[in-house]
What we know:
Elements: E1 3-8, H1 16-23, E2 29-36, E3 43-51, H2 54-64, E4 68-69, E5 72-73, E6 75-78
Antiparallel strand pairs: 1-3, 1-6, 2-3, 4-5
Amino acid sequence: MATKLYVGGLPYSTSEDQLKDLFAQAGTVASATIIMDKMTGRSKGFGFVEMSSDSEAQAAIEMFDKKEYEGRTLTVNEARPMEARPPRRDFNGGNQGGYGSRNNY
């Protein structure tokens, strides 16, 4: 079974191919994804790598966690499901969506 890893502290210039090549040193990489900002299209400085086995994932954690990569210190650990967050508020103090807000004229 593949294990997904969270990789934080990536240089903003890192490509998905570079991330995949880096983690290939620890084993077979099933996928590598850099998370991009929706508004700017630029990297957010973190991503996810899916290793082909649990043992390769553990090897990658030991190999790269708290190690320097292109001037930045990486954080590598097993990815956890995204936690639920409260709804975002708009600039007028209401919930996003428009229904029932004060400025819907």
